[in-house]
Amino acid sequence: MNRCVLMGSLLLGLAGATGLGAAEPPGDAPGPKDRAPLLRVPRTEDFGVSGRGDSPAWQKARWESLHLRTAREHPYQTRVKVLYSATGLYVLMDATDKKITATMQEDFLDLWTEDVFEFFLWTDERHPVYFEYEISPLGFELPILIPNFQGEFLGWRPWHYEGLRRTRKATTAAGGPKKPGAAVTGWKAEVFLPYDVLKPLGNVPPKPGTRWRANFYRMDYDDGRATSWDWARVGASFHEFSKFGTLVFE
């Protein structure tokens, strides 16, 4: 086995990675525009992940809305909550929808080409390296580390992705079955991201007062139309990390 494989499997070429965030440039949809949002993240004890977001711990966190990137897209609603513990980060996404436009049945596939929720974590602003996480309505995931040097970037899969380094995640559908093509009224994704999988990024784990740059996204492909949402407004690419918002850990 060569050194590249030992260090991590190369997942995305530059062209493919650019496609992650190249759905459409933002237009005249209401949203954050040039305002960089800030979200305060409450601390919690660890809890189980069900995909329903029904743990009492979530009552500590407030909902934060994502914004349509162009006004002519599907008018679905998307919102997120974030918590942190001594061992990892918790993220909950709740979205309205009409159809599960997702077919992929494995992790580490090109999930962004179908319905997906994504979050990006830039923990240490001294270095242009951040963590990207994607999860489909069917519960399949894409966790990758992104070195991004002046717009040239690649995605690398985690090595020894098991045990304490592996996420815990679940999804649920509302108004219909969690199946490809099913008619639904919405879906949720709940993810626990252990700090161990973020190694060796700096500024991890967070403590009260720590700040991370971050962004949250959603893609939907109902009726053959690509619809996208962001929390902090970026341009044509989801990888414009200098425009990310800020998480402040309480």
List the helices and strands and how they pair.
Blueprint (H helix, E strand, L loop, with lengths): L2 H5 L2 E3 L1 H6 L18 E4 L22 E2 L1 E2 L9 E7 L3 E9 L19 E7 L6 E7 L5 E9 L2 E2 L1 E2 L11 E7 L11 E9 L16 E10 L6 E4 L14 E5 L1
Account of the 3D structure:
It is a single chain. The protein is mainly β and about 250 residues long. The protein has a single domain (about 5-30, about 40-235, about 240-250), classed as Immunoglobulin-like, CATH 2.60.40.1190. Helix content is about 5%, strand content about 35%. Strands 2, 4, 7, 8, 9, 10, 14, 15 and 16 form a nine-stranded mixed sheet that branches. A five-stranded antiparallel sheet has the order 3-5-6-13-12, with no helix packed on it. The longest helix is centred in the N-terminal third of the chain and has 6 residues, at about 15-20. It is globular and about 40 Å long.
CATH topology: Immunoglobulin-like
Helix content: under 10%
CATH class: Mainly Beta
Uncertain spans: 1-25
From the 3D coordinates, which CATH architecture would you assign?
Sandwich
Backbone shape: globular
Distance N terminus to C terminus?
Answer: 44 Å
Structural class by helix and strand composition: mainly beta
Q: What is the arithmetic mean of pLDDT?
A: 89
Question: How is this structure best summarized?
Answer:
The protein is built from two helices and 16 strands. With 250 residues, it is mainly β.
Keywords:
9-stranded mixed β-sheet; 250 residues; mainly beta; 5-stranded antiparallel β-sheet; disordered N terminus; Immunoglobulin-like; globular; single chain
